[in-house]
Design goal:
alpha/beta, seven-stranded mixed beta sheet, 9 helices, 7 strands
Length: 253
């Protein structure tokens, strides 16, 4: 694996930043940001309406860290939209998104740097190991459920369609933003990218799962699962009338 310095050089040359959406993660957000800084000089943190000490802690970060804040909480999809806007304002051509709860390792950023160097313009998707004994069983089921619908909607297969550790090629996406404001926005971006013939590349990443009593999650099982199910229904319809025809036309051109 390449070094932190080499990773920073690749990201700088290719104008790649790191985007960290944050909501009430006062215990971990500073540590996450500080772990990223040796690997990337362009870091954006989106404070998605936090009501704890997150905003105060972010104000104490180095000036090189770009913070976007707003109230009230709008959801991860909206945070990604705001972060993408900021990234393009800064002249970045791509961003690596990672969660602020400490589940993702900054030491995996070299994997994204290597992948973006050899897969120009690809949307690079981190793939977790589902053999991790600490992974909640519901996560494994939810991912299999999501993978099935993604394959149906795009004719593409990915081992992990729910991970938040990804590199989005903003220049290749040409202004694409999620319409969905919550967690389902990440799935929407994957599907729409596939329809637009943006290459999808999967790479293996590490992930940390704390003990159940220490785990912080803002996922609302009933409401968010219902929203994801509704989105999958809509995407299946759109796949027939737009997605598959679009992919066919692009393949013929």
């Amino acid at each position: 694996m390449i070094s932190a310095e080499e990773t920073k050089a690749i990201f700088s040359e290719r104008r790649v930043g790191v985007l960290i959406p944050a909501y009430n993660n006062e215990k971990s957000v500073v540590q996450v940001v500080e772990s990223v800084l040796p690997f990337c000089e362009d870091v954006i943190v989106v404070n998605d309406g936090s009501t704890d000490q997150t905003e105060t802690l972010l104000k104490a970060l180095p000036a090189a860290v770009h913070v976007v804040s707003y109230l009230p909480n709008r959801g991860k999809g909206f945070a990604l939209r705001s972060g993408f806007d900021k990234a393009e304002e800064l002249g970045l051509s791509a961003v690596v998104t990672m969660d602020s709860d400490g589940q993702h390792f900054a030491t995996d950023l070299p994997l994204f740097a290597e992948a973006c160097r050899t897969n120009e313009g690809a949307l690079i998707v981190g793939s977790r190991s589902f053999l991790n004994p600490n992974m909640p069983q519901k996560n494994s089921f939810a991912n299999k459920f999501s993978n099935f619908w993604f394959a149906l909607q795009t004719a593409h297969r990915l081992p992990d369609t729910q991970t938040g550790y990804r590199l989005y090629p903003l220049r290749r996406m040409k202004g694409m933003r999620p319409f969905c404001n919550r967690y389902e926005g990440e799935l929407e971006l994957l599907v729409r990218s596939a329809w637009r013939a943006i290459p999808l590349k999967s790479i293996s990443i590490n992930v940390f799962y704390p003990a159940p009593e220490e785990r912080v999650t803002h996922f609302r099982p009933t409401i968010d699962f219902a929203r994801i199910s509704l989105l999958n229904t809509v995407l299946c319809v759109l796949a027939v009338v737009y997605g598959y025809p679009s992919m066919l036309i692009r393949k013929m051109l």
